[in-house]
Write a structure and sequence with these properties.
heterodimer; A: alpha+beta; Rieske Iron-sulfur Protein; 5-stranded antiparallel β-sheet; 13 strands; disordered N terminus; B: Cytochrome Bc1 Complex, Chain D, domain 2; Cytochrome Bc1 Complex, Chain D, domain 2; two-stranded antiparallel ribbon
Chain lengths: ~375, ~270
């Protein structure tokens, strides 16, 4: 309260404790400063018995802390690790529960005691601590500038300019290693690079469709109407480590069989299926969640992440949700031994969209 | 023999020979082929007849008098030709069928049919067309599985089932009020039948693709998962971020807000 710079018109008056209202600078502060309400004493300020009661409460909370801390030590040594506390849906290791409760409550009780102390017994007189202006005094500014000139002169920077310039160069170039490190983010996505990475899967002509996990090949006669198979290309088996994960993330498929008379198969995709068995990418075209939430009666495939819904009975077009492109379909046929194989790779890039993706080849409702 | 050979050109001989041949052929056919089937049919056809009578009362209003299905009426039901005995056993013993009213999904409710009645219904529906039979106990008991089998079952479960039924088998929502039910406490037989037949919106997982061993591994994994004690305290239904987030937002932040209000509240004033 001692330092009053007079910077704030809202505090133009010295006396802010109630009474007369200020009306300064109505353009900027149309609502006058109401000042402080009158200070009212608390119950504990006037009633000694209430103050004693509050004191006892505070002392109780603080006094519980040593007991809980000792309890923690007792639990630590006395409760065996294989005791369990069982109470309805709650089942917990008795030692962990005991340690957590004793230590947690001891911290909580310190806090509760301190807050109760501040609320009931510490003084609660309202007071104003005025902020001083942000600008320095003119003489301070002048002193700072001369001081700065002096320092610059003392560093000899004005006479030996090469030091300053080389320092600037050093500070500039010290960022080069950090920028070079950004190359670790991956190769520059040129058109060629995209074509051989994200736009390519291990699917190719003659690659067998196999079950995920078991890698068992699939015959069309083993698939019933309404059946869903989570599949992978058989060639995935030859990969390991990172390459396996990268290719699996792109090549995962789902294989479904529907009654061919109840679904729409465009003429261009008539030979992409085997008796109503259709094969689609398992990767949602929105942001790439793997989807196999398929309703066999509606033929809808639902993505659990953002509820994009694709109609597998209609070339995988989007019927609901944020996905913008239909689910890529994999053309399939059977090989000489009767197993399902890919007729070719995917005709469009699978996975979510990215900059410069050519989406003209994607199937749209009404294409044939 | 002379008696026969001297009369071999007799006018009656041809007719007699033909009759003899017919008797022999008929006798052989009677002895070999249909004998067993007739015996079995006597029992089975009785069951099928009972099943057909039950079907006409409980099922025919939606599925048609002969299980052919109804797709044009206001009350619709799919055709039951070829769904097999396993589908009937699953749907009726779990109380899903007969449905109380047409709707997006048949909910589980108390089953009113006795085991014999369900068997009769199953036999009748199975007679409509070939379909999966009720699995034998040896297929679904999922006993004696090694840790490796259980791990493989877990992998199969997460690949094929968790998309709808949640990674713990806690179930999940589908569009338009449909849902994938929770798998807690579902008997092994029912789990097996569900995979085999693909009830309602659930896809089929036929024995040829997901072999009986694979199915047993999945069932064993679920039993293991659900039988395991949850040592972490409240599991909140195993629903992951949904229930945990709800708990954190409402209980956790609610508690903090309560503390903040207590700290800043003005207590009773003396005046």
């Amino acid at each position: 309260m001692s330092e009053d710079t007079g910077a704030s018109p809202i505090f133009a008056h010295d006396d802010h404790h109630g009474g007369e209202l200020t009306r300064a600078d109505e353009a900027r502060y149309p609502v006058p400063d109401p000042g402080h309400p009158e200070h009212l004493p608390r119950l504990t300020d006037v009633d000694p018995r209430a103050a004693d009661r509050a004191t006892r409460q505070i002392a109780f909370f603080f006094g519980m802390v040593p007991i809980l801390a000792i309890g923690f030590a007792v639990v630590y040594f006395a409760v065996p690790g294989d005791w369990f506390f069982d109470f309805g849906p709650l089942r917990a290791n008795a030692r962990n529960l005991g340690l957590g409760l004793t230590f947690g409550l001891s911290l909580l009780f310190i806090g509760i005691g301190a807050v109760q102390w501040a609320r009931t017994l510490m003084t609660d007189e309202e007071m104003v601590d005025l902020r001083h202006g942000a600008t320095s005094k003119p003489e301070d500014q002048q002193w700072m500038l001369t001081e700065l000139d002096k320092v610059v002169d003392e560093t000899k920077l004005t006479r030996r300019k090469i030091i300053g310039r080389s320092l600037l160069g050093a500070l500039g170039f010290v960022f080069v290693p950090m920028l070079v490190g950004l190359a670790d983010l991956g190769p520059w996505p040129t058109k060629k690079k995209r074509a051989e990475t994200i736009e390519k899967t291990v699917w190719a002509e003659g690659v067998r469709l196999v079950n995920d996990v078991t890698f068992a090949p699939i015959k069309p006669e083993d698939i019933e109407i309404g059946q869903l198979i989570n599949g992978e290309p058989e060639t995935l088996k030859d990969l390991e480590g990172t390459a396996f994960q990268v290719e699996k993330a792109k090549a995962a498929i789902i294989l479904v069989r529907m009654n061919p008379n109840t679904i729409k198969i465009p003429d261009s995709r008539r030979d992409w299926q085997v008796g109503g068995i259709l094969c689609y990418s398992k990767i949602c075209t929105h942001v790439g969640c793997p989807i196999s939430l398929w309703e066999q009666q509606t033929h809808h495939l639902l993505c659990p992440c953002h509820q994009s819904t694709f109609d597998l009975g209609n070339s995988g077009v989007v019927v609901f949700g944020p996905a913008a492109r239909s689910l890529p379909q994999l053309p399939i046929t059977t090989d000489a031994e009767g197993y399902l194989v890919a007729r070719s790779g995917f005709t469009v890039p699978v996975e979510p969209s990215y900059f410069d993706r050519d989406s003209r080849q994607d199937f749209e409702e009404g294409d044939n | 023999m002379r008696f026969l050979s001297s009369r071999r050109r007799h006018p009656v001989a041809k007719v007699a020979l033909l009759l003899l041949a017919l008797f022999v052929l008929g006798g052989i056919y009677n002895a070999v082929a249909p004998a067993e089937r007739v015996a079995a049919d006597n029992d089975n056809s009785q069951q099928i007849a009972t099943g057909k009578a039950l079907f006409a009362v409980g099922c025919a209003s939606c599925h048609g008098l002969n299980g052919e299905g109804q797709t044009t009426d206001t009350i619709q039901g799919p055709s039951l030709v070829g769904v097999g005995a396993a589908a009937v056993d699953f749907q009726v013993s779990s109380g899903r069928m007969p449905m109380a009213r047409p709707g997006e999904q048949a909910p589980v409710k108390p089953n009113r049919y006795s085991e014999e009645e369900i068997a009769a219904l199953a036999a009748y529906v199975a007679s409509l067309g070939p379909g999966p039979a009720i699995p034998a106990e040896s297929e679904y008991q999922a006993a004696g599985l090694s840790d490796e089998d259980l791990a493989r079952g877990g992998e199969l479960f997460r690949t094929n089932c968790s998309a709808c039924h949640n990674f713990q088998g806690a179930g999940g929502a589908l569009p338009d009020g449909r849902y994938a039910p929770a798998l807690f406490g579902i008997s092994n037989k029912r789990l097996y039948e569900a995979m085999l037949t693909g009830p309602q919106q659930m896809p089929v997982f036929s024995d040829e693709v997901l072999t009986p061993e694979d199915k047993a591994a999945i069932i064993g994994y679920l039993n293991e998962l659900h039988g395991r004690p949850i040592d972490g305290g409240l599991a909140l239904g195993g629903l992951g971020p949904v229930s945990e987030g709800l708990w954190a937002w409402i209980v956790g932040i609610g508690l903090l807000v309560g503390f903040a209000m207590w700290i800043t509240a003005k207590g009773a004033k003396a005046k």
